[in-house]
Amino acid sequence: MPVTCVCPGHEAGSAYNPEKALATDLGSMRATSKGCDVTIIAGDGKEFPVHSLVLASRSDVFATMLYTEMVEGKTKRVEVKDVNDETMTLFLKLVLLVRIFKECK
Question: Do the beta carbons of residue 72 and residue 65 sit within 8 Å?
Fold first, then answer.
């Protein structure tokens, strides 16, 4: 839900969408690997640094893998052998965005 922005650096009274800003900020952090604590390895070997908290909050499967005694939780590495790097890139963008906008309806 947009609100009126009073942040330094933004035009006074401009619309600010906190959900969009959160998605943008988290995406920027992942793109620079800031705070990433898990690595997903696509089938072609490309590695994707990610935030376990974000993955677990979006997926019960990742939550189970990362926050139980499973190998992935211990090693902080998740291998997804049947997904190439292009598909994984798209998947990770959607994981970050879809639920945020779904909940805003």
Answer: yes
Burial class (CB in 10 A: 0-12, 13-18, 19+), 104: exposed
Instruction: Give the model confidence (pLDDT) of 29-43 as tens digits.
Output: 777 778 899 999 999
Looking at residue 88, its amino acid is M
For the stretch 46-70, pLDDT in tens is 999 999 998 898 888 999 999 999 9
Buried b / exposed e over 34-52, threshold 16 CB at 10 Å, is eebebebbbeeeeebbbbb
Tell whether domain 3-103 is in CATH 3.30.710.10: yes
